[in-house]
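Hi W.,

Here's what went into the run:
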Amino acid sequence: MNKNEVIRLENITKTFGTVVANKNINFSVARGEIHSLLGENGSGKSTLMNVLSGIYTPDSGSIFINEKKVHFNSPADSIKMGIGMIYQHFKLVDVFTAKENIIVGQKGKLIFRQKELTKQINELCEKYGFNIDPDKKVYDMSVGEKQNLEILKVLYRGADILILDEPTAVLTPQETKKLFDVMRNMKEAGCAVIIITHKLNEVMEISDRITVLRKGETVGTVNRNETNIKELTEMMVGRPVDLSIKRLETHAGKPILKVKDLTVLDADKTKALDKVSFELSEGEILGVAGVAGSGQKELCEAIAGLYPVAEGSILYKGENIVGKSPRDIIRRGISMSFVPEDRLGMGLVGAMNMVDNLILKEYQNQKGIFIDRAPAREKAKVLIKKLDIDTPGINHPIRQLSGGNIQKVLLGREIESNPNLLITAYPVRGLDIGVSYKIYDLLNEQKAKGVAVLYIGEDLDVLIELCDRIMVLCDGKVTGIVRASEVTKEMLGMMMAGQELNGGKGEDAIGQNI
Amino acid sequence: MGERGKMQLVRISKRDDVTRAKANMIRFIAVLAALLASALLILFMKRNPIEVYASLLKGAFGTPSKVRGTIVEAIPMIITSLGIAVAFKMKFWNIGAEGQIIMGAFAASYFGLNFPDMPMPLLLLIMAVAGIIGGGLWALIPGFFKAYIGANETLFTLMLNYIAYKWVAYLQYGPWKDPDAKGFPLIKKFSRNGIIPEVLGVHAGWIVAVILVVIMYIFMRYTKKGYEISVIGESENTARYAGMNVKWVILSSVFISGALCGLAGMIQVSGVNQRLTLEVAGGIGYTSIITTWLGRLSAPAIAIVSVLFAALVQGGQYIQAAFQIPKSAAQILQGMILFFVLGSEFFIQYKIYFTNTIKNKKKGDM
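Here's what came out:
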């Protein structure tokens, strides 16, 4: 055993009902190590980390911290042992300052000495390379700053074992770089850092060792410099996977969607979309890149008739569809398989079975007052086969399926409806690698059929490989529309951070690139 | 070994693998537990619980006339519960059934009192339609404000109950007071034509109840509207996304919900009381919330639960007379059953382990 070992998990098993989330997992992390926990969705990464942070109690197995066997009954026990977890969804109080967020919930002293606290925070910032103003309110912070604050919070509480759950999902490439610098500093300072992720290139960039989980079991632990992306993928998926997406070179048909000066206001009357203009043609995939929350959701919903439009027009086959009801828009062949942050929030009904979810948009075309579910039942069976949906049956509530399978039901339904315009947001979020590539194939298939596809994505590599053109959004504004074959990740990153391409305004950019 | 921290005594985990049979078993055990707990209370009152339960059953089903009494109690509960279920399925928490019953009864009475000479089938039909519209409109008020400005329907429907009640009180003591009632504040009885006739010894409302159970079962399961109601209940966003007219579905189904309650009011006022009184709803609107919930919004289950609850009410009156124990004892039993059955949902959704078993398992592993 490595004497630097700070954490060792032995034979951890955790079941939920009949589902075995973790099975005899062994895992160890050393001081001064960045250890990636790699695995597809549903492979048990999060469960394992929740065991380590005291949220779940394992059914069997042991946890050793510094060679001492421990039992965690609550997250408080785990924090006491120096374990700090940074979740994907930040747990910060918006109206508090950074400083206040750091001390909130701390026991002990009634009165905090402000100056001393500020000094301590600044010391920590210096040590690890954070860039945080202790008196800045959280609502004024960017996503990257908030994440830094989360990390700072657990460090302040004395954590020397940090777990980061998919920390890069919300960051621009530049912010990711900064985060990795911070992580390296933590490593230098002797912390043990665990990063949960499924992004292979990040794993290769940052980690010392990598442990791969598949279906709740440890596949193995490898050293970064003795492995490669291909091997990791195979470990993750369990079989070789072809990782290239071919961009179908179709000659784009006539424009089908013209969005002009689209402006929408959110609940606070600030502009969620600001004069967005673009065109989309038949047989074309237009990618939309941007940091989460840059207006992607509003764009999708505005086109689908679900979001009030303040200004501008959306011309579909020459007809302005602003102000039309969602029903009218569906009837025109615009299909949105929108996948919001919460998969079941829109698009699917979790408590219902597959059949009832498949008829969701189609039932109104049936005649009479009754619903005929027989065709949907057949369609459900077909989809299960075609997309490899793992479900106990077509009458099983889809809420109980895994995220990836839920997604397959949603996208399957939308593609089955033979749309002319397919809007799809994060269609592979939470999907296995193998299935993700199947989805890309499906999108290409649609493209080949002449469907116009608006693809909201997060993985820049995929956007560049799959799309014909990429539109970049930042704070609701278009910072550029570029040919995917002529752009680099770095350029996209700059645009995502707000730098407009060639200093051109939205419309000029379109002019240049169409 | 360096174990630290206190050992956990119980561990709770969610389970989603419960079969329907197992779930029903747990609910059945909960009812038994409720009976046991109530037995303790009866013992405390120095009565023999077994005797009390036996006569409770006897009071509810002992003789044909007692069975008829139980059915008469069950009819309005079934119809009202069906109405409540429509709203609840949409997660529109209509607790205003009491008021909707009263307003349905009021609307029906208006025609019953003013057209005593109309032929019976026509008058009853008009009264039924009036009851449906009266209850439906009364529910539509909170439904409108919910759909358009998002007003909280729970408080709204509850408050309307009091207004409906006071409205009938005003009629009874004021404009509708029967001058021939020797000064008693009573509203005039309906003519023969305004009273629902008996079929097989029970007023014909039972036929309506049976038909409605079938219709509502089909409505909720096999019609577009029923499907829309379920979708909206689960997620309004999804409903909008699917192109449903959410406001219209909310309004129309809230109307249906109130309409069924109003029809129950018409049946009650015409078939049972034969005149409009303040006690026309008599708490049925509230009891039906319980039966709806225990019936898990399913029409056939609601029918069964309503009959059982009616038996409790009927039998409760009987034990009150036979054992001189207060009527509230039967109400406590109702409360106990509700408490235990609702509590049992926890055991259906979660599994509980005791740490001992884990310890043993660990020893086995070593």
